[in-house]
Amino acid sequence: MVTKKGAVTPKPRTASSGSAVPNRTRPTGPRLSPVHQQGSADRVQEEYASLVRSAAAGDTAALDQLLLRAQEVAWRFSSSVCGHANDAEDAMQEALIKTYRYVGRIREPEAFRPWLYRTVRNACLMGRRKKAGEPTRLQSLDEVLPRSDGRTRPDAPHPGKNPEQLADNAALRRRLRKALHSLPAPYRAIVFLREMEGLSTREVAKVMGMTEDNVKTRLHRARIQLQKDLGSSAQ
Amino acid sequence: MSVPARPSARCRTLFVELSRYLDGDLTPARRRAVERHIKACACCGTMAARLRKTMAVCRAEGTRRPPRDVMSRAAERIRVLIAREGRRSPVRSA
Questions:
Q1: Is residue B4 part of a domain?
Q2: Can you give the pTM of this predicted structure?
Q3: Contact (CB, 8 A) for A90 and A111
Q4: Is B94 within the bounds of a domain?
């Protein structure tokens, strides 16, 4: 989608067009619809594609809007996946800079979101590799699934403690964040992309570089783990 | 709601399909089969409800916005980038 020799040849922006600053006056362009509140994933995808096309053609208001939106998305993803606040911020900024630099070369505007997530994820991975001795969590989630003999595992969810009994409040959200960060990074990324950002399974597979079936399997295991963690923290 | 101590073989088979069911990703025939089972089985019905709630909590979390200081630092970095690269049109074709 983004290549060194891109197919799109946008009008070059000039220095005076340097209004692509996310926190200045909010752009006048159309606001994007939150996936889980208003529109379908398809509509959000088309809104992004429209912004990418306009930005590539030199529309600075569209570029502002795109960067603003990309900033929020990239921050949420990086803070979910990277694990460290500073790394997350670096990854977010790198993604924004790449968006700014390469928006004119994106050949599939409809695939902008997967590209952005992949960029953030790669930045997180690169940042992680640079750090020596960072703890990683590599154990399998198979341990939370029922055994083949049908017996539940010792740490299986307690039937008397489940999310339905919890109030949907800030405490629950804190527990969710803690539970998310206890997941292995790839599982966490899949949950984020699918549940929080509303990407399709196919888009998640593109971002993660795995098959759709693999995404579905990991998503299911991650949901089970999250449900278990949320349930066991209930009073 | 009582939860059986040992899930049946049918429960174990269905368990791996719960996420796909909740995502609307099953064939009509499988969807009907899962629906029939979770209505009749306390164990699987409870698990389906818990997973649905967990998914809802995750989706609510997806609306967070970056803190102001994070946004400010990102904006500043982009400002610097634009000042440095704007003159040479960073989005021109390679």
A1: no
A2: 0.65
A3: no
A4: no
In a domain, B2, yes or no: no
What CATH number corresponds to the domain at position B14?
A: 1.10.10
Structure tokens at A15: 């220095």
Residue B81 has pLDDT above 80, yes or no: no
Tell me the residue range of the domain where B63 lies: 9-88
The predicted-structure confidence for A126-167, as pLDDT tens digits, reads as follows: 776 665 444 343 333 443 334 444 443 333 333 344 445 444
Looking at the structure of chain B, the number of domains it has is 1
ipTM of the complex: 0.72
Domains of chain A and CATH, by start: 39-130 (1.10.1740.10), 162-232 (1.10.10.10)
Q: What is the pLDDT of residues A85-107, one digit of tens each?
A: 777 888 888 888 888 888 888 88
Give the pLDDT of residue A54.
92
**What is the identity of the amino acid at A21?**
V
Q: Which residues on chain B are in Cβ contact (under 8 Å) with A73?
A: none
- Are A220 and B19 a contacting pair, CB within 8 Å? yes
Bridge partner list, A106: A2
A40 versus A50: which is more confidently predicted? A50
Closest residue in chain A to residue B90, using alpha carbons only: A101
The answer to whether position B35 is within a domain reads yes
| CA distances (Å), origin B16, targets A49, A150, A219, B65, B78 | 35, 13, 11, 34, 45
The answer to whether residues A185 and A81 touch, using CB atoms and an 8 Å cutoff, is: yes
Helix (H) / strand (E) containing A204: helix A201-208
Interface contacts A/B by beta carbons within 8 Å:
174
Contacts of B73 (CB under 8 A, 6+ apart): A89, A93
Q: Which of A9, A76, A100 sits opposite B78 (nearest CB)?
A: A100
Compare CB distances from A146 to B7, B62, B93 and report the shortest one's residue.
B7
Instruction: State which residue of chain A sits closest to B20, comparing Cα positions.
Output: A216
